[in-house]
Amino acid sequence: MPSSFDFARAPGHLIRRAQQIAVAEFARALADFDITPVQFALLNAVIDAPGVDQVTLAKTVAFDPATSGSVIGRLEAKGWLRRQADAQDRRRKLLFVTPEGAQAVAHMSAAVSQVQQNILAPLTTADQVRFMALLAQLVSGHESPAVPLVQR
């Protein structure tokens, strides 16, 4: 009989668990705002690049462009985001954070910062720095076409 795979030590499993913990912590801390981590990321990306189009925005936050439209629609329904047709290409929708959206982000920012601290709280300060550097390296390595990954 074959031995079972030790998924509890598998990177994919641990990353999935870390994601579950991060999302749960975000939901708990921001329950009063009725917002998801993806919605918060989209709002902040639009604040950083007013007038960004939907496709570019989805790439910026590494979110599926096909479903970003519904997330944008929910933010629009809350009055936090507005879409505007591009004057040069009416099919292209440009996005802008409304004053109400900017105010909501300002009110959420302290809670989101606390969430980030809570996620890393089990680690020492030195381990937090090392973990964040390694996590950024892992993501960057998988996003960079110049770095070949091991083929199966």
β content, as a range?
Answer: 5-15%
The helical percent reads: 55-70%
List the uncertain runs: none
User: For the CA atoms, what is the radius of gyration?
Assistant: 19 Å
Mean pLDDT: 92
Order of strands in the sheet with the most strands? 1-3-2
**Shape, per Cα inertia axes:** globular
The sequence of SSEs as H and E is HHEHHEEHH
Q: What's the total number of strands?
A: 3
Structural class based on helices, strands and sheet pairing: mainly alpha
Characterize the biggest β-sheet.
Answer: 3 strands, antiparallel
**Beginning-to-end CA distance, first to last residue:** 25 Å
The number of helices is 6
Features:
mainly alpha; 152 residues; single chain; 8% strand
Structure in words:
This protein has 152 residues and is mainly α. The chain contains six helices and three strands. Strands 1-3-2 form a three-stranded antiparallel β-sheet. A hairpin with a 7-residue loop joins strand 2 and strand 3.
